[in-house]
Amino acid sequence: MMGKYLPPMLENLLGLPRQLWESLLERLFFLPPFPEQIDSLALFSLLLVVGLLIGEWLHAHARWPKVIGYVLAGILFGPSLLGWINVEALAQARPIADAALGLLMMEVGRRLDLSWLRRNPELLRSTLADITLSFALIFGFALWLVGLTPAWAAATAAVTMASAPAVVLLTVEEARAQGQVTERIILHTAIGSAASFVAFALVLGIVHAELSEDWLNALVHPLWVFVGALLVGGLGTWLALGIARSLPKRSLAQVFVLVACALLAVGVARMLAVPVFLTLFLMGVLLAARDSRQTLRYTALPEGHWLLAIILFVIVGASLPWHEFTWLAGIQALGLLLVRAIAKTGALAWSGGSLPLPKRLLVGMGIQPLSATAVFMAYEIASLYPEVGRSALTLPLFAAAMMELLGPALCRLALRTSGECEAGDHGRGGIG
Amino acid sequence: MSHNKPLEAFKDSAALSLGVELELQLVSKRDFDLTRGATDLIGALNYDERFGEIKLEITESMIEISTLPRLTVDGIAADLGGLRDTLLSHCERNNIGVCGGGTHPFHHWPERRICPGDRFDQIYQRYGYLAKQFTVFGQHIHVGCTSADDAIWLTQALGVYVPAFIALSASSPFVDGVDSFYQSARLNAVSAFPLSGQCPALDSWAHFVEHFGFLQACGIAQGIKDLYWDVRPKPEFGTVEIRVCDTPLSIEQASSLAALAQSLSRWLLRTRPPLATGKQAHVARYNKFQACRYGLDAMISDPVALCQIPLKESLGSLLEDLAEDARALGCEHWLNPLRRMVAENTGDAKWLRTQQSQHGNLNDVVRQASACLRRKDNPFLEKNS
How would CATH label the architecture of B18-384? Predict the structure, then answer.
């Protein structure tokens, strides 16, 4: 929705065409009024192309992960800088971002292999250590050093404790990484996400209790979020498996069914105000757990879904509150990231399941990203009590904003150093 | 020529002792495609080598298990079982699946990664993409010889039976996601290497040393490992090595093939049939192709009788002829599965095709094949018994 709210620079640019159009309108009666709003599809394609170009350019010239380029495009054109993507445009593009995030979360859920923990108890120890240390240290930092109230400190910890599934998946895919470090980064990310979602649902209740002392909402809201997401995710799973069973495995038709059911779940979750990331994550988990006949086990999402991810990160970039940046907030966010990094690498250093220490530390580095889910969760909690929530959650948002740029690079560095990337296959024949 | 390794003296070993090497597939437990992980697996392996070795092969998606030298097939089977169980439990901890079979049915070879190590690096530098395409999985059987001359004679004599070993082990019908029509497509990947094929007609160890010196002088081979012959002498072990078998889907089938090698070697060394090595050289490649393409249905050319004989027929009578030697070696019970296989015209390749037609996709085929390796029985025998 650019029209009335267009930034001055765009308004000036459109001045002449608008005059020309209005003069033609007097003669050509079939013409519609001068379009004041950009069409959703046009906005979608613009964001796609701009994000893509910046991502590709940075990747080709600086070897940066493409995700950083998408986020930078969002920051550049978002409300904080040029303002070409304003708040209304962000809201307009939100369904696409939800779809992109939903598909990525479903993929992470499908990869959550809990049986691995049973087969390797050391991994259970390291993932539990990651979850508890991350939550506890971030909570302590936010409570005692930043001075947030217990509820907002818990919200900050819930939002930032886990790695970023979308960034991790995109970086792994981009690097074509494969191996033990890669697999453990994905496992830690998936389990960390699951834990942060549980913490998120509980925090919703705590925030209600602290800010309004409304015990009905404090009890029912977390239930609504969790049970709602489970039911919608379950419905999507049931439909997807039910329909796909009659189709050939790995067929294009199955891919369509999977994507369509995922998008249906995204839509229903949006209608019921149930978080999309949680719903689709649970749908992914259920798809993997309930698929005893391997109906959809080998059916991968189409390559094209990465295009949606570009939109997601452009929007995440545009949603970051850089215009509210203060040095104090920046230092606090850096402190949070430092504490979080200590928690994650400390957990991996302590235990890591049959992997030597240097590789465990690489896993610790690879799970540093903090991104879309954190930003969406923060806004979700903040919207409960907008008058206080927005400022109370500045800390996780700035932490996410900084990690948005650093996280993909750290994840990529971990994968490259482990020698598990396809790109490392040059020179001495991929020996390293 | 500075890299040439002098040929080691033939180290005599116990007569008809056995050793078996199996190259196995490392697969993802998510989609059953090949995965990379051999170096990490070996690096974290805490194992005292009581059953033999677990080691790297050319690419990160392969792992090799090799037994200790044993006098009996029962000993080999026990070692293979121990190695399999050790490897499986270690792989389970790392969320990696293990599978038999001569080829992975649908992996994308450019995705393969060469393992660290000077020898692997040299192979990659020399052969380029062939090294990655060499991600195929074979069983090698060593038979101990008490003298170098016996080893050369046995190398020639076993050459005639190469089609039998190929047909009985064939487990690579799928390549690059399609049915190759072959029972063993793996050997097509091996035959791309310039030093693959048959051992030339040599009649003594001295003659072999002379021939090897000639290959070194011509710059063709630097060490004995450069010879990818179907059957070759292995002086440092004091053995003759049969290298044409696909890795079967089960440890039990691998043990049966070892029993065939042992009893056949005993029978050959005991009866010393005349060898028409010169004539055999003319039909060897054709016979090998027949066995790879048609398995037990192959028609084998006999350059002495000047006719073609169905492999099934000659194998049936060979297995009967070997009964006495197998009994003497205590491995007759291991030949029974092979007899049933020939009688019922079944095998791993056929079983894999059946799985493909049942499931309609190759991911499930690898999933089932991976389950076969874990089971303590032979899949196709169970299915047909």
Answer: 2-Layer Sandwich (3.30)
> Please, which residues have CB within 8 angstroms of residue A61's CB and are 6 or more apart in sequence?
none
- pLDDT at A284 (0 to 100): 96
Q: Which CATH architecture has domain A90-306+313-420?
A: Up-down Bundle (1.20)
Size of interface A-B (CB pairs under 8 A): 74
Contacts of A297 in chain B (CB under 8 A): 30-31, 363
pLDDT at A27: 84
What mean pLDDT do residues B49-75 have? 95
Q: Hey, of B33, B40, B41, B370, which one would you mutate to test binding to chain A, going by the most A CBs within 10 A of its CB?
A: B40
Rounded to whole angstroms, the Cα distance separating A281 from B208 reads 65
Please tell me the distance from the alpha carbon of residue A38 to that of residue A16, in angstroms, as a whole number.
Answer: 17
Which residues numbered 283-302 in A keep a CB inside 8 Å of some CB on B? 294, 297-298
DSSP label at residue B111: G
Confidence of residue B16 (pLDDT cuts 50, 70, 90): very high
Q: Is residue A118 less than 8 Å (CB to CB) from chain B? A: no
User: Does residue A283 or residue A211 have the better pLDDT?
Assistant: A283
**pLDDT higher than threshold 70 for residue A423:** no
**Amino acid identity, residue A21?**
W
Extents of the domains making up chain A:
90-306+313-420
B305 residue type, one letter: A
CA distance B214 to B225: 16
Tell me the C-alpha to C-alpha distance, in Å, between residue B322 and each of B88, B155, B260, B268, B294.
34, 18, 8, 10, 24
Contacts of residue A176 in chain B, CB cutoff 8 Å? Answer: 111
User: Using one digit for the tens of pLDDT, what is the confidence trace for A219-234?
Assistant: 899 999 999 999 999 9
Q: What is the ipTM of this complex?
A: 0.84
Which of A180, A250, A432 is opposite residue B40, by nearest beta carbon?
A: A180
pLDDT level of residue A211 (50, 70, 90 thresholds): confident
Q: What pLDDT is attached to residue B288?
A: 96
Question: Contact A429/B121, CB-based, under 8 Å?
Answer: yes
Query: What string of DSSP letters covers B155-182?
Result: HHHHHTTHHHHHHHH--B-EETTEE-S-
pLDDT in the model for residue B24: 98
- Is residue A323 within 8 angstroms of chain B, CB to CB? no
Contact (Cβ atoms closer than 8 angstroms) between residue B26 and residue B144: no
What b/e string do you get for B16-28 counting C-beta neighbours within 10 Å, with b at 16 or more? bbbbbbbbbbbbb
Listed by start position, the domains of chain B span 18-384
CB B114 to CB A298 under 8 A? no
pLDDT tens digits, residue range A42-91?
Answer: 877 888 888 888 888 988 888 888 888 888 888 888 888 887 777 777 88
**Of residues B106, B105, B85, B109, the one with CA closest to residue B36:** B109
d(CA B346, CA B238): 34
CA B4 to chain centre: 27
* Model confidence at A7: pLDDT above 80: no
| More confidently predicted of B25 and B123 | B25
| Packing angle, helices B73-93 and B362-374, rounded to 10 | 120
Instruction: Provide the pLDDT for residue A39.
Output: 77
Distance CA B126, CA B252 (A): 36
